Amino acid sequence: MSEENKFKDQAKQVYRMLIMVWCVVLLGTVFAIYALVDPSLSAFNTDEELQPVVVENTIEEDDWDKIEDGIHLRTGFVDDDGLMTVVNNCTSCHSAKMVTQNRMTKERWVATIRWMQETQNLWDLGKNEDIIVNYLAKNYAPKSMGRRANLENVEWYELN
Ligand code: HEC
């Protein structure tokens, strides 16, 4: 082998080495970036078992059903007989506000419950229905509306 060919051969070997080193560095970088994004390598975890999602309660355990100034803090319901029956049956689909912002007579509360049972999959309330309806009719009854106040300082005009 001539000196020139020997040199070419060595150059080729160095060149191959460089490419290999470069490949290793590239792979290492890709892996390092991946490890940063997914440190537990969860994408490679073949364990199919689902992990439970832990939701932190923002309300302390003791305060969960705390009542202050006659108001059930968690829901805003008025504290009275049947409160927890109402909380347990009427807050799982919509907020308590949907209930407390309404004021109805007993008949209309029953009708609202029937409507939810017929169209919104509300369950049969059984003997809790009386407790709930009584609670609602008592604490969320229509505000009695008296006669409106007399009009004063009105400028009347003649109809022609
Ligand atoms: C199974 C689910 C579910 C449960 C449980 C439930 N509701 Fe509802 N309720 C609904 C849906 C759905 C609506 C309509 C929500 C909307 O319009 O965005 C609704 C609407 C209402 C409304 C508003 C009605 C109107 O005319 O606008 C009131 C008041 C109400 N619910 C009271 C109650 C009471 C009291 C209870 C407990 C007995 C209760 N809900 C339990 C599903 C439910």
Automatic annotation (TrEMBL):
Record-linked InterPro entries: Cyt_c-like_dom_sf
Keyword Lipoprotein in record: no
Keywords on record: Membrane, Transmembrane, Transmembrane helix
SUPFAM superfamilies according to UniProt: Cytochrome c
Spans traversing the lipid bilayer: 14-37
Signal peptide span: none
GO molecular function, one term: heme binding
Tagged with keyword Membrane: yes
Entry protein name: Sulfite dehydrogenase (Cytochrome) subunit SorB
